[in-house]
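pls design
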């Protein structure tokens, strides 16, 4: 069986990772290849000029009223059992190698939507011309690849692909890539002016004058994959953000229809384990050294010193001078309301994050948060760091710092408001660090309370916030007063396995066959 995966990210290639989808595109194809499948992965060329590469062909792609020349390359990395393909055009690499361009609120997704629409058109053209071999299964990932399904369905030039089996993975339903149908240079009719399409299938349910790529793919493919069994159930319900519940985000009706037709499958993502069986010999001194190096790199990027970096460096010196006596609580991830909404909720005349720091301080513990993202959230956590002497916030991402936090932390904090699958909790557990999580999505599928970690839930933002603080306090107490039970939970966390080889078998039986 031959599978072609189409995506925006792929961590098998350098600097092509933003989120967890890149981990999936790095690890899952390898696991499928080890089961005997032929797997090709194609993403845009964001500037992989340093990689060994061979040109497979040049495509002449009709797009936005012009003919665009797009080159197809096979690139060579360590992972040779999977064929890595990239499509090159200046539009894909114009943002200095960045995968995404964050447009302002007036035209959300505009730049990226145009870039990925051209990429999708080029994928279809490559299939038509045989530059990319026709697969048995076409596997599309998130909204960035959805126009492939639209073109293969509605462009008569691709009629010969109408019977090609197609799968669409929803990694994060909160990002749908919505753009107008027309009236904008970043719109469906601007990209494909000759396309005859069914607007009822492609339109956004909340904004009918807009094209919704994610909804389009959901309605057009043969199988829809959600990245955990629990998340596959959550998206069938309407979101209630005022109550802290995030479900189908407007697509629940389409997903319920698909579920009724046996098209929806929930399969948990996997994790790599081979290199992490040995006992860690890392130390806090190493961690503090790597943190300082990362802070210097971040500081040097701008002429003016940001308050978050200054406070963080001062707090780091304090941590170094006063050895930690209590538990080290860690958190690693992008700062978005998905991940940190509960931390900024009010709690007894302060914020939840302050309450957690207070509980931690009672046991002379410390918290280190690594991540960046939403500017307002960065400011919230920076000011919380200024108020709490046991909180260190590192605004950025450093891979070596993240790895050491997974290895050296005593408790990993992941109170996500929604989490399609989650990789951070798997990485923490792999390193022997139990996690405290909100019982949603893939977190519910991977963490069992008082067995291999700790979890909380609630029906409103207020009850969720209260449950988080209570669960956190109880967890710290258990660690202090029940060391035998704590060690058992740590052992169970480290022993948990969510292997890609197991996941790959599910892909074949539930998605591809």
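designed seq:
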């Amino acid at each position: 069986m031959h599978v072609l995966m189409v995506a925006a990210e792929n961590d098998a290639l350098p600097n092509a990772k933003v989120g967890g989808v890149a981990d999936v595109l790095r690890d899952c194809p390898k696991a499928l290849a080890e089961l005997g499948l032929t797997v090709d992965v194609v993403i845009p060329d964001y500037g992989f000029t340093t990689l060994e590469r061979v040109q497979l062909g040049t495509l002449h792609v009709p797009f936005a009223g012009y003919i665009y020349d797009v080159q197809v390359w096979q690139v060579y990395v360590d992972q040779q059992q999977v064929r890595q393909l990239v499509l090159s055009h200046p539009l894909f690499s114009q943002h200095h190698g960045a995968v995404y361009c964050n447009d302002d609120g007036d035209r959300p997704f505009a730049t990226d939507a145009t870039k990925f629409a051209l990429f999708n058109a080029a994928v279809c053209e490559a299939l038509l011309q045989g530059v990319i071999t026709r697969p048995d299964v076409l596997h599309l990932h998130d909204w960035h690849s959805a126009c492939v399904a639209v073109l293969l369905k509605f462009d008569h030039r691709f009629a010969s692909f109408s019977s090609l089996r197609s799968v669409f993975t929803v990694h994060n339903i909160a990002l749908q890539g919505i753009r107008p149908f027309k009236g904008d240079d970043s719109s469906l009719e601007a990209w494909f002016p000759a396309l005859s399409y069914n607007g009822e299938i492609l339109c956004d349910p909340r904004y009918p004058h807009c094209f919704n790529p994610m909804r389009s793919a959901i309605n057009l493919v043969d199988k829809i994959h959600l990245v955990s069994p629990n998340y596959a159930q959550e998206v069938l319900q309407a979101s209630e953000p005022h109550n802290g519940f995030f479900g189908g985000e407007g697509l629940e009706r389409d997903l319920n229809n698909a579920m009724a037709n046996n098209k929806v499958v929930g399969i948990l993502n996997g994790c790599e384990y081979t290199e992490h069986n040995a006992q860690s010999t890392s130390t806090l001194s190493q961690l503090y050294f790597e943190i300082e190096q990362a802070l210097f790199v971040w500081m040097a990027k701008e002429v003016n010193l940001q308050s978050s970096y200054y406070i963080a460096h001062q707090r780091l010196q304090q941590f170094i001078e006063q050895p930690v006596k209590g538990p080290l609580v860690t958190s690693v991830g992008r700062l978005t309301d998905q991940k940190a909404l509960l931390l900024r909720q009010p709690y007894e005349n302060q914020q939840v994050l302050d309450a957690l720091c207070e509980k931690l301080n009672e046991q002379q513990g410390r918290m280190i948060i690594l991540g960046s993202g939403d500017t307002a959230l960065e400011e919230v956590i920076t000011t919380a760091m200024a108020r709490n002497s046991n909180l260190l916030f590192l605004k950025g991402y450093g891979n070596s710092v993240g790895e050491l936090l997974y290895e050296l932390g005593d408790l990993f904090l992941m109170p996500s408001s929604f989490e399609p699958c989650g990789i951070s909790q798997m990485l923490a557990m792999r390193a022997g660090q139990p996690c405290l999580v909100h019982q949603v999505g893939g977190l519910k599928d991977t963490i069992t309370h008082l067995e291999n970690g700790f979890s909380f839930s609630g029906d409103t933002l207020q009850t969720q916030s209260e449950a988080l603080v209570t669960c956190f306090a109880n967890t710290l107490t258990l660690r202090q007063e029940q060391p035998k039970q704590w060690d058992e939970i740590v052992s169970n966390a480290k022993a948990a396995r969510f292997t890609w080889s197991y996941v790959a078998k599910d892909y074949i039986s539930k998605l591809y066959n």
